[in-house]
Amino acid sequence: MSKVYFRFYEELNDHLPEEMRKVWFEYPLKDRISVQEAISSLGVPPAEVDLILVNQLSKGFDYILQDEDRISVYPVFELFDISEISELREKPLREIRFICDVHLGKLSRYMRMLGFDTLYSNQYTNEQIIQIATEEKRIILSRNCRLIRDKRVTHSYWVRSSDPLEQIRDLVNKLDLSKSIDPLTRCMECNGILVPVDKQQILPQLEPRTANYFNEFFRCNTCAHIYWKGSHFENMLGFIDQHILPDEYDYLNC
Length: 254
Ligand SMILES: [Zn+2]
Fold this sequence. Notes:
Layout lengths: L2 E6 L16 E4 L6 H7 L7 E6 L2 E2 L11 E6 L22 E3 L4 H9 L4 E2 L6 H11 L2 E4 L2 H5 L6 E3 L5 H11 L19 E4 L1 H4 L5 H6 L3 E4 L5 E3 L2 H14 L10
Parallel strand pairs: 1-5, 6-7, 6-8, 8-9
Antiparallel strand pairs: 1-2, 3-4, 3-5, 10-11, 11-12
Helix pairs in contact: 2-5
The structure holds zinc ion.
């Protein structure tokens, strides 16, 4: 019988049974089948795949498997730049934007704290999430495998942990986000943009102590929530440094 060989890399292995992880394994070819169909049948969501090498050459999802092919499958966020060789998409998502599923409210706040454009509502249906992600080219962050295996989903990341801090650490690490962090640029409440605002303009809204001690203020351009450079900012930086960034990365000295 015809057969091909698969090898999956990095976190794609999480979807496979133990004996298939990080090793070459045989896949019997019964019918004419595309590489995408084969990958899906193994339980790996195509949306998490960004590069497929067949006998060392980059191929698209519609490639029809041939007897004795050797197929290496890489995840969306391998840390090397695959834009030159990948055939799967016209171009990778350069501008990183996200949409969280309904279970990831806390993660969405952490993402915004780090400055990442991240949509979230506990009212979203899966259909809405897929639609918004497609229209606005957003990466879906989800704990729901069914959602990210939907054929229409092109960019997604399956969030493994149920603990928000572990989730954000894992994301920053796997998606190599630490150098793109830009704190105090986005509202944690609503994802709006923070813009500097003159203290005099917002004086009536400030607690007297805040007004006395701080001078640099920002206001959300969507919900008007006020942030200030001082305790807010320092608390956030301290939190990011202590709890989110990998140990070797010294954010405060950048
Ligand atoms: Zn806001």
